[in-house]
Specification:
The chain has about 425 residues and is an alpha/beta fold. It is built from 15 helices and 19 strands. It binds NADP nicotinamide-adenine-dinucleotide phosphate. NADP nicotinamide-adenine-dinucleotide phosphate binds next to α7.
């Protein structure tokens, strides 16, 4: 019997567990560890609450967790409660699937002013991540700015622009719903340091902006290259640009109170304000011969009492695990970090790709492990039994999948009408639900 520990219960962790379970056909025990008693990582804490169809993928992960060879072990923080070296003693292989939860910094003056938040913090706040329950983003000003031209920037801008009514059916947490309902924000400026052709937004997500109840997109036609240039784009990107061109050709509906302004060729240079953010100063850019943003020297201020930087994420380092400083992920070769130590998902590739990208990624690493570690052979590892003993000696009480179901049932039972759940937003509430 082989024993595997997967650290992190997000999409990358679950696809890898599914793949290992299949590859070993019952001859392996797979433990998925998470620092929280609630699984699914990015699905719970990252995917936008108004994108419930994307969250439905967790049903597939439920099936994996319920399969005989797989266990969920929550409430265990690797690096604090147990080290990677200890896990390697207990398991045949350890697979790090910890994602990339930390916000990249803009690295410009004024970034530390109150009112400047990372997208991970903002998204965590409206999605009930316990680390950001008290973020309290300032929503009392009329202007907000979101830096970045990726899908996360779109998520943040859309959430700031929706009406209470548009959150029906979502699982946005109550504190965020109430705060957004009271919000004074009327203009959300989305800042891109390059042009429309360089956006990292996908058509479906972009198209949604054209159908918001009380907000209209504003795009400058002058920002586009001649329409013939779109022919060279790959089909998905061409679709996105076509949507942006439609936005540019449509005057914003005067009946809508809010605007979502796309400000292209605008590179943040500093953030200013008296004790809190009041504006973000940007430099006009143009594309250089390599397609990078080159400053023109012209600067202007964009008013904003909330600035959200949505410019990517990084994976935290773990003692003793090789780290790729430039790429902000673990140093690995096709998923292999060191002997019996692997990485999957964003911890392997960096913070790009959709949830579905993690499936082939996890299967590839699982197949590699299966090829390197046949069912027979290796040392006799103790797996979960040894881990639980070690944790008990340290006063750590892990939770299991049944505990999660109890939490889930309670969250479902206390949901407001039409919403699938009302998440607990404090870590101690999860444990209280379990009578701890
Ligand atoms: P992303 O797609 O990599 O976009 C990051 C954006 O930040 C880019 O536009 C980048 O511009 C910009 N940027 C980086 N550094 C900057 C700086 N210093 N100043 C100004 N702008 C800067 O990352 P993401 O939006 O965080 O998304 C992460 C992944 O999750 C993506 O693969 C995304 O598609 C996926 N995702 C998918 C969904 C969905 O399917 N619904 C939702 C959310 C996220 P440059 O191009 O100029 O570098």
């Amino acid at each position: 019997m082989r024993h595997f520990a997967i650290v992190g219960s997000g999409p990358a962790g679950f696809y890898t567990a599914e793949a290992l379970d299949k590859a070993y056909g019952g001859a392996a025990r797979i433990d998925i560890l998470d620092r929280y008693p609630v699984p699914y990582g990015l699905i719970r804490f990252g995917v936008a609450p108004d994108h419930q169809s994307l969250k439905a993928v967790s049903k597939r992960y439920d099936k994996v967790a319920e399969s005989a060879g797989v266990d969920f072990i929550g409430n265990v923080t690797v690096g604090r409660d147990v080290s990677v070296a200890e896990l390697l003693d207990l398991y045949d292989a350890v697979i790090l699937a910890i994602g990339a939860p930390h916000d990249r910094k803009l690295g410009i003056p004024g970034e530390d002013l109150p009112g400047v938040v990372g997208s991970g913090e903002f998204v965590g706040w409206y999605n009930g991540h316990p680390d950001f329950a008290d973020l309290d983003p300032p929503l009392d000003g009329t202007h907000a700015a979101v830096v970045g031209n990726g899908n996360v920037a779109l998520d943040c801008a859309r959430i700031l622009s929706k009406t209470r009514h548009e959150f029906e059916g979502s699982d946005i947490v109550a504190h965020a719903l109430e705060a957004l309902d009271r919000s004074a924000v009327r203009t959300v400026t989305i800042l891109g340091r390059r042009g429309p052709h360089q956006i990292a937004m996908t058509p479906k997500e972009l198209g949604e902006l054209g159908h918001l109840e009380d907000s209209a997109p504003v795009v400058e036609a002058d920002d586009f290259p001649p329409v013939e240039a779109d022919d060279a784009l790959e089909p998905g990107q061409r679709k996105s640009i076509t949507i942006l061109r439609e936005f540019a050709a449509t005057p914003p509906d005067p009946a809508k109170a809010k605007r979502m302004v796309f400000d292209f060729f605008a590179k943040p240079v500093r953030i200013e304000g008296d004790g809190k953010v009041e504006r973000i100063v940007v430099e006009r850019t143009e594309l250089d011969e390599k397609g990078a943003a080159r400053g023109t020297g012209e600067t202007y201020a964009v008013p904003a009492s909330l600035v959200i930087s949505a410019i990517g994420y990084w994976t935290p380092q773990i003692d003793g695990v090789a780290y790729d400083e430039r790429g902000t992920k673990f140093l690995n070769e096709n998923g292999r970090i060191a002997d019996r130590l692997y990485a999957v998902g964003w911890a392997r590739r960096g913070p790009t790709g959709t949830i579905g990208t993690n499936r082939p990624d996890g299967y590839e690493v699982a197949d590699r492990i299966a090829a390197e570690m046949p069912v027979e052979g290796g040392f006799d590892r103790t797996g979960a039994a040894g881990l639980k003993q070690l944790l008990a000696s340290r006063g750590v009480m892990p939770t299991d999948y049944d505990d999660w179901r109890k939490i889930e049932e309670t969250e479902t039972a206390r949901a407001r009408p039409g919403s699938p759940r009302e998440k607990f937003v404090r870590a101690e509430e999860w444990l209280q639900t379990l009578g701890r």
